[in-house]
Specification:
single chain; about 120 residues; mainly beta; seven-stranded mixed sheet; four-stranded antiparallel sheet; globular
């Protein structure tokens, strides 16, 4: 059974940085687009970023452009989300998701999901 495991969340002050990791359980990782999503209490799940399987191109939500950077290391079956200049409104549970082929910022296109990691931005 394919699994995704997120890590790297925590408590950080406004303006700080965190790097989230998403480990994919199979060596077919390079065939999958990976997305990062977040969900704050009482809010809908929001697409944050995604990276393609073919050319490592990325797309970001407007709310995180210029602050977040997504990357992948196919040799380690791992995707990353570098988050800089964090704001209190970035507080949420962050999830990674995988889809064989083309991804996007819409949750319903993804087939596999991790359990999430909590990110809290507060002074």
């Amino acid at each position: 059974q394919l699994q995704l495991v997120e890590s790297g969340g925590g408590l950080v002050q406004p303006g700080g940085s965190l790097r989230l990791s998403c480990v994919f359980s199979e060596d077919t990782f390079h065939y999958y687009a990976i997305g990062w999503f977040r969900q704050a209490p009482g809010k809908k799940r929001e697409g944050v970023a995604w990276i393609s399987s073919s050319d490592d191109s990325t797309e970001y939500a407007d709310s995180v452009k210029g602050r977040f950077t997504m990357s992948r290391d196919n040799a380690k079956n791992t995707a990353y989300l570098q988050m800089n200049s964090l704001k209190p409104e970035d507080t949420a549970v962050y999830y990674c998701a995988a889809k064989r082929g083309v991804g996007g910022l819409t949750a319903y296109v993804y087939d596999y999901w991790g359990q999430g990691t909590q990110v809290t931005v507060s002074s």
